[in-house]
Amino acid sequence: MPDGVTAKDIVLYMKEFAPFAGTCAFGLSCTHRSEPGCAIIEAVRRGVIHKDRYTSFLYIRDEI
Ligand SMILES: [Zn+2]
């Protein structure tokens, strides 16, 4: 990850996630972990985003 990337920016760097950035019920302040109305969690549930990609997203998020 380049310097200056914040946890909120990660979704923009993962191409399957980018279309959902800002579309969660909590918008850009969503952590995409367990929020109701989270567009990313919904996409994982529908199979649009692969579960493994979501798992690495959570891992990267914890690293930042
Ligand atoms: Zn979300």
The total count of strands amounts to 0
Helix content: 25-40%
**What gap, in angstroms, lies between the N and C termini?**
9 Å
Strand portion, in percent? under 5%
Mean pLDDT metric: 90
List the helices and strands in order. HHH
CATH topology: Ribonucleotide Reductase Protein R1, domain 1
CATH architecture: Orthogonal Bundle
Explain how this protein is built.
The chain is mainly alpha-helical. It has one domain: Probable gtpase engc, domain 3 (Ribonucleotide Reductase Protein R1, domain 1, Orthogonal Bundle), CATH 1.10.40. The protein is built from 3 helices and no strands. The radius of gyration is 11 Å and the shape is globular. The relative contact order is 0.20. The model has no long low-confidence stretch (mean pLDDT 90). The structure holds zinc ion.
Give the structure's gist in a few sentences.
This protein is mainly alpha-helical and 64 residues long.
Topology of helices and strands:
Blueprint: H1 10-13, H2 39-46, H3 51-63
List keywords for this structure.
0% strand; binds zinc ion; 3 helices; single chain; mainly alpha; 64 residues; Ribonucleotide Reductase Protein R1, domain 1
